[in-house]
Amino acid sequence: MAKACSAEIGIIGGSGFYDPAMFESVSEVKMYTPYGAPSDTISVGDFKGVKVAFLPRHGKRHSIPPHLINYRANVWAMKDLGVKRILAPSAVGSLKDEMKPGDLVIPDQFIDLTKGRQYSFYDGAVVGHFSLADPFCPELSWLCVEAAKKLKIPYHSTATYVCVEGPRFSTRAESKLFRSWGADIIGMTLVPEVSLAREMGICYTTIATVTDYDVWANKPVTAEEVAVTMKSNVEKVKPLIMEVIPKLLKERDCQCGRSAEHALV
Q1: Less packed terminus of the chain by CB within 10 Å, N or C?
Q2: H helix or E strand, kind and range, residue 206
Q3: CA distances from 57 to 30, 47, 107, 247 (A)
């Protein structure tokens, strides 16, 4: 891969989380992978001396629903560009009173309830059993928490994310069940993005932004209110990302890059 088309940091998120003004010398890169095309072209630019690649998870026009995202192509493309760390903003619903719309959540665990996705790069002669006991990069998550503290953004640093298939939302019974399990937030895009990053040896953390309470709560919410909250959340996440990126120039101290050492059969 030519140096002009390489990056150290990847951002996979909604198009609202990407502001071209954040970066210099931005170029659009069309990627090809063994798993087909990624969600869209990838924007590669410079931010304070760091090469950053941004990929809109649902496409630039938000035209790809969560259950049809080509997660393998997205993560493969990031790896092919040289990305070693991925920051993944996403919108979630809250399953707890204390996790309010507008709050940021840096989860440390997840429960996978998806059903029909492509979960692994290891579908052939080599089988990979990767540990996801601690699914998120501790170093990357810690940097996000520290940035939220510095910027005085309301945040929660430990949480369990329930990932559902989508595109439908939960029934009230399902939402109450997830709460009874001790889950904190609910979304549709974390899995298999997080596990594919682990297979590739890429550090990964999600920056979950709460848009509303899930249907367990007797707190009706309108689409207009969600849209307003989402816009506000984007404006919180942008400075957080800008705070974190310059701190990623140093070598990794985590074990994410060595994830395959004891995983392959």
Answers
A1: C
A2: strand 203-213
A3: 15, 21, 19, 24
Identified catalytic residue from 40, 123, 214, 253: 214
Terminal-to-terminal C-alpha distance of the chain: 29
> Does the active-site annotation cover 212?
yes
Place of tokens 């210099």: 24
The model's pTM is: 0.95
- At which residue do the structure tokens 């503290």 appear? 149
How many CA atoms, within 13 angstroms, populate the side-chain half-sphere of residue 220? 1
The one-character DSSP state at 128 is B
Residue of 40, 184, 212, 253 with catalytic role: 212
- Evaluate whether 165 touches 113 at the Cβ level (below 8 Å): yes
d(CA 114, CA 139): 27
214 catalytically annotated: yes
Count of C-beta atoms within a 10 Å radius of residue 155: 20
Nearest-angstrom CA–CA distance, 65 and 238: 23
List, for residues 7-63, the tens digit of each pLDDT value. 999 999 975 676 667 888 899 999 999 999 999 999 999 998 899 999 999 998 889
- Tell me the DSSP string of 155-205: EES--EEEEE--SSPPPHHHHHHHHHTT--EEESSSTTHHHHHHHTT-EEE
Tell me how far apart the alpha carbons of residues 211 and 100 are, in angstroms, rounded to a whole number. Answer: 8
Closest CA to 207 of 71, 103, 135: 103
Could you state, in order of their start, the residue ranges of all structural domains in the chain?
A: 6-258
